[in-house]
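Journal club side-thread
Mid-discussion, someone asked how the predicted structure for our own chain would compare to the paper's figures. Pasting it here so we can look after the session.
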Amino acid sequence: MLASLFIGAGFAFAAALQPGPLQAFLLNSVAAKGWRRTLPAAFAPLLSDGPIALLALLVLNRLPENWFRVLQAAGGFFLIYLAWNGYRAWKQGIPDETGADQSMPRTLLQAALVNILNPNPYLGWSLVLGPAVLAAWQETPNQAVVLILAFYATMVIALAGTILLFGTTHFLGPAGRRTLILVSAGTLALLGIFELGTSLLRTPTV
């Protein structure tokens, strides 16, 4: 149960802090319309991820059992790769993006569209969440439910917190955002190591 909570909450927390299309949308939307009108966009993953998750689970469920070790190891390397990218972004610094782009979408449905066109949810569900959910389901269905709930609850809370920080404080200037990226990179690295270790310890089936 604790492993499911760790994977779900940890991956969501790190993903919410990583620079990407959804985060860029939130920053520009806050700058253009304020945090109150942007706050509903924190729920965008709940709208966009359903088809992605269903597709990933249907495909993964048809794979032989031994492929889960391969996918879990690939997911670990993917998380470490994301951590490395986050570390590079921290070292290089990030540009000041406080200027509003008036052409950016600003509604919940449009934010969901931004996310569904983002490759990260597809990679996340194919390489990390999908294998983790199926592995948890094999233990008990409750663990799979806990993992999914932990992921989306943490994702919504983290995105909402990011929106509030964007809109109500000066903490998320360039220096503050660099700090969050470094925290995110460290979390991703720990998750990647955990996934690699779990894949090596998983007992192969004959």
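Post-session note: Confidence is low (pLDDT under 50) at residues 95-106.
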